[in-house]
Specification:
Blueprint (H helix, E strand, L loop, with lengths): L3 H12 L4 E4 L4 H11 L4 E3 L3 H15 L3 E5 L3 H15 L4 E5 L17 H5 L6 E3 L5 H13 L5 E5 L2 H4 L7 H4 L4 H6 L6 E5 L1 H10 L3 E5 L6 H14 L3 E3 L14 E4 L7 H6 L2 E5 L17 E5 L10 E7 L1 H11 L7 H15 L8 H25 L13 E4 L5 H7 L8 E3 L9 H11 L5 E6 H5 L4 H8 L3 E7 L4 H9 L14 H8 L2 E5 L2 H14 L3 E6 L5 H9 L1
Parallel strand pairs: 1-2, 1-3, 3-4, 4-6, 5-6, 8-9, 8-11, 9-10, 11-12, 12-13, 14-15, 14-16, 16-17, 17-19, 18-19
Antiparallel strand pairs: 7-13
Helix pairs in contact: 1-2, 1-6, 3-4, 3-17, 11-13, 15-16, 15-22, 17-19
Amino acid sequence: MPSVADAIVAKLRSAGVSALFGVPGGGSNLDVIEAGRRIGMPFVLTATETAGAIAAIAQAEITGRPGACLTTIGPGVASVVNGVACARLDRAPLIVFTDSYPAADGDIFAHQRVDHRALLAPVTKYSETITPENVFAVMDQAIGCAMAPPPGPVQIECAPDVAARAARAAAVAAAPPSESAKENAAPARRFQTVGRWEAARAAIARARKPLVIAGVGARQPGDAAAVRSLCARHALPAMVTYKAKGVVPDGDPCFAGVFTNAAIEQSILEEADLVIGIGLDPVELLPRPWRSPAPVVYCGPWPVEALHVPFVAQLVGDVVSAVERIDETLGDTDWNLDAIGRTVAMQRASAFPPSPTLSAHQVVQIAATAVASMAETAASMAETAASMAADQMKPPARVTVDAGAHMLPATMLWPVSAPNQMLISNGLSTMGFALPAAIGAALLERERPVVALTGDGGLLMCVGELLTVVREQLPIVTVVFNDESLSLIDVKQRQRQYASAGVALGSVSWSSIADGFGMRAHVAATEGDLERALAVALAGGGPHLIDARIDASTYTDTLRVIRG
């Protein structure tokens, strides 16, 4: 009979999990790690538990299957909370394994004891303790719940004196399917209407300037194809949220910019007489009043709250089917897509004016250009080859973006052509995201470079993951926007006419830190420095860090133009 740990990793493997991440303790973690090793599921040690969760989230977003991480008791669970909250608000399926005291010991020990379930309850969808009798049923329910719309994190606890015991296979037949499992098994094209659908259908039929806003719930390849087809057939402009970058590519004639509910987007929104939110979840939006008087219709895989965005009606279920229903109802439209393209170009120019010194937006533009040049070279080589394999057609680099002032130029200026080519935390918007997410992404495709765009404050929160990158020899280029400050908070302080306080980080020799981890480092104070550093880093195939010494003075005008 397989052990409980064997049953756990077998279920993970069948669900599509490719690796386990985290910081182990001495209990059931060790049995799970060993069981994974036996079937070829690696365990990747990260410097912190939250980084392990974020690396697993990145894999979940790219593959569409669950990610998995583990923690020890007490401090391990307390440390992973931020990563679990990220999965909850960024709608990512994550399975979190927590250790516990041996089941035979009961509650007699107080040392390191916290109520794991109570601690994680506000940010998890499901929590259960594994026994030899229920391991198969619990794993099925946990995986089904993590994947059920909206996807999110679940917690599984396993005691050390349970993990090595024999699992009872009879429990498979005895366990009833969970509601989430039933939902996942439902017909793929089924959807239901929520709200005043007749009023919504009338608004769709009479709309002449409907605007599409694609969000986190529309990132599956088929969903993106449906959105692009709808926009092309009806000449509709489409905005994308941070998480939905690439659903409509930046270079598409229908692309109308990034939507966050900020000031810069309002001019296009004001022209619309209907808003079609495809996978648009209000968790993605800035907490500001919704200003558009146009009716808003939602379609997506899960229902969303209408307290912030006043949805008239919702089509909940299969996105492709719902888009088809909207497509059938739409009539002729009056948009001028060329004018929309000019507006987007002017918005970018006004938010990111030329700078005599190295600015954040110049760093983004130079890095994006370097990646595009790499893509052109790869495409040229593939065209001259006798045969062209499918993996040769993949974009040559993925990008991950941390929270901070640099995310404004990163999300607006880095062109993305497919969903999940850019990974970013938006629902939680946590700092310390970019590097762990890059680790998860690079482990899936070791031949494909990942560019991690992070502020110096964000990197300080997860600097130990540079060692993880080196240990795994991952092709990650970490670009540090080094301005020695929490710049976004500094700008907000000055907007309120407060003195700058508590935002100065101090000088950090990032090249020395990288060197100490065994990573090749570059310092870039000019555009030429950065271009040369990127050429070496992207061609090198291994870990590189680029310390980009930027001028933060442009952030004030950028924030004013974009957010008002």
